Amino acid sequence: MRRFPCRRAANAAQELDEASPGKPGDRHAGAPTEREPPASSLRAAPRPAPTPTSPRALEGFTIPGILFNNFDRRLVDLGEIAAAGLVLYVYPGCEDLPPDSDAGVAGDVLQHTTYEALREQFAQAIPGGALVALSSIPAWLQLHRSPDLAWLQDQETPFEHYRISDETLQLAEELGLPTFEHEGKAYYERLTIVARGGRIQRVFHPVVPGQDARQALAWLQLH
Question: Is the pLDDT of residue 193 over 90?
Fold first, then answer.
């Protein structure tokens, strides 16, 4: 029966050796030496994602490189477009809302036509950039709703006007963009983003359809 306490004592001594600083097996080594922090702790902490209730918090963030379907079936990289500069206007695309609703399709059409009418001015304000409209409606439906814009897009214009589809709300997940629900489905709230060099410089939210294009253009002309 005496062997058991001795075995426990030996084990305790071994554990003390392993826990003590200095040379292995030397319980009487000097003061513990400083350890270098792991490499992961030296890295800068990632910037927290903004909350959906604070779109202005997006300013300074990088536009993520996500591939989206354009309404003419081209795949476009949003981050690549943003590197050259863009004005991104996000709209709901919800047909089931009343016509006089702020989120209704009439507002979408007004946004598209106003931005298109000002395309030459935007080309001067953000050379080499592009206009980008984004919603969660399918690309084929965007084409159906904008045949005139599709015809213009077929021509080699120096300043493009994209209409891209984000059916799974990837950009909302990446950046925390505000959304709303209607009949069990999520839609984007209207907002406008101005980006240069891949980074968001200005966010407008909430916006009024038709006025948001002029608001973004005026800001670009001053900055």
Answer: yes
